[in-house]
Hints:
Layout lengths: L3 H10 L5 E3 L1 H15 L16 E3 L10 H4 L5 E8 L3 E8 H10 L6 E5 L4 E5 L5 E5 L15
Antiparallel strand pairs: 1-4, 2-7, 3-4, 3-5, 5-6, 6-7
Amino acid sequence: MFDYKEIERTVKDNHLPFQKIGDVDKGILIQRLYDTFVIGNPRALWLNFKYVPYSIDCNMEDPYFHLLDIIDKDIVLYFFIDYWNRDFVVYKAKMSDIHKFIGDCEGLDEYYLVTEDFMELYSITDHDDLLYIDVRKNEIKGEKKRDNA
């Protein structure tokens, strides 16, 4: 069953050098996540992104199997685990360690990977969609692209 104990077990059993973000810092990072990528307070963040996300094709497979093909294994990311749409568990870790965690954590359903500078976000949804946003490139929802003609 997916709960806080399962999250802690996965980190401990795999000897993952995760930096757990808690208290004030956690609140600041969650607020920055919302301010940067989300409109309002939706049940699931991906339901109301500020930007039109790119959908990365995973050939109808779980995105887990493609993450290391898409994201550099050595990059350090913030790992936001959506806990039943009520809370987030937040870690800072290397992608290779996050990948190991995802492969072993029973019931992990929805999570977000964000670069340290909050310029890029990868969203893995409960529908096994892999969405990507780069705030420097993606179109903001509701804005029309201008023609340079």
